[in-house]
Amino acid sequence: MKKTFLRVCLVGMTMVTLVLTSCESDVESTPDQTAKFDMAKIYAHAQTLGYQESDIRIDNFMYPDGTSEARIYLQDDAAFTEAEFLDFGGLEKQYRTNNLVSSANRTIDIIGYTGGSNALSSKQRTALTNAVNNFNNLSGSTLRFRLTFGTNFNTQDMVVYRQPGNSGDGGVAGFPSGGRPFKFAQIYAGMDDETTDANEHVMTHEIGHCIGMRHSDWFSRQSCGQSGESAGSDGAIHITGTPTGYDSTSLMNACWPRGTNGEFNTNDRNAIQAIY
Asked: Which of 9, 83, 148, 179 could cysteine-pair with 21, CB 3.0–4.6 Å?
């Protein structure tokens, strides 16, 4: 990843708990990790969604308490358990996923983690406060976030925490499942050296994934200088009132340039207000 960009990838789809990752990993699948999964079934399902075997890898996903478990990563962007992946039906498109937060779960208790090496720094706590305000300040939105800081994340709907084992400039999260937001949003250790606004950008982006937002430039990944993400078998469904082409200033683009202010642009706001 170029230091001028922050890549935030997605993980979490239809009736599944996915994970979004902001940097491409160099970690390869190990035999003992792969052995935990029925890879033949996983590859076959990937093909029905329009993906190739090369789009699949196995890697670990860390939780706030430092424990981890192997997950299936799709195009280095989304991470699933095996059951979640086999239930996965594809991604939808200023752009959203198939899964959203249900009307019964739109008051979201979110905690910034403060324990051990996974603790957010003082700068990052300010950034998380600003990120939550980005959502709470959306006029007419039915989403409401209630932010606290501490270590008791088990009772919370969402937890934002530092991932000390990844030096990338980004983070990883996922998409809603069962009408509830994805719970875990990791912020990589490389963000320690970034500005408050950059941390706000990454956190807002990851929270956006947790409530079902997809990359605005999924079709091209133009913000990263890449060629795009597969839409899967369901294609991509455009959110009314937002561009169908490249929106260079969207906070939900796959990569961000230096100098970001960490704020939604008009199209980001319109997209979230349209679905919530």
From this structure: 9
